Amino acid sequence: MSFQKHDSPELTTLFNSKPYQGQSPEKASIIFLSSDANYSRKISNDPFFNYILEYQEDGVSFWEKYGYHHPFLLDEYPFDKRKDGVRYHRNFSKIGFNAKHADKVCFLELLDIPTIGNKSSNKNLFYDLTSLPHLKYIDNLISGGGRKLFYISGGVLKDMMRLKKNHNIFTWLDQETNKRKPLSKSVNGNKVQEIYHFSSSQAHSQAKAIYLTANHWLDKINTRPTD
């Protein structure tokens, strides 16, 4: 399926009011920044959409109620579990976070709209769909302090480098695209850490390291959830 903006008015409206999932970016201590939030084209026409509505309304309460950080992991999910963002969240769940992390973790994307398909099939459209106010919002989150840990995949960092060239944003980012060492950078009390994308086959190898570094970060800022 070709990449495009999701055609569900309901889902788009949800993202207009809350262009993130989980805890709000302002309150979160750990933010996973990716490119876009991907869904099945048919999701808003299925009764399962009620779970999406519940999740978008309050992602923290959803995690605490069901024991899963995202509705894609529920047994009731009716679509192909190999695509449409499901693989991302299934791999994320291998980190080992639990509901006691719910109020610490946020999922944020460069696009502030829901999508269909893989952005690699139309990268130009992906860049056209970006919103400069939303990108500036993300930039301010990263550079504005708040003791937040940002996990960002190498591919998303490359997208940000291109957006940096097109707009006066992400000026803190000086990533060398052909380097061997993952980016690890402090920005005004925050930290940006490069990881593999959770949809990649390499994501499994990083789960333990993310769990340890994330909890170390929570320890450092004295907000680690109790076991």
What would your notes on this structure say?
- The protein is an alpha/beta fold and 227 residues long.
- The protein has a single domain (4-220), classed as Uracil-DNA Glycosylase, subunit E.
- The chain has eight helices and nine strands.
- The protein has helices at 9-17, 49-57, 59-66, 86-92, 123-129, 132-143, 154-166, 207-220; strands spanning 4-5, 20-22, 30-34, 37-38, 105-109, 114-116, 149-153, 184-187, 190-195.
- The strands form two sheets. It has a six-stranded mixed β-sheet with strand order 2-5-3-7-9-8. A three-stranded mixed β-sheet has the order 1-6-4.
- A hairpin with a 2-residue loop joins strand 8 (184-187) and strand 9.
- Helix 2 crosses helix 3 (59-66).
- The longest helix has 14 residues, at 207-220.
- The radius of gyration is 17 Å and the shape is globular.
- The mean pLDDT is 90.
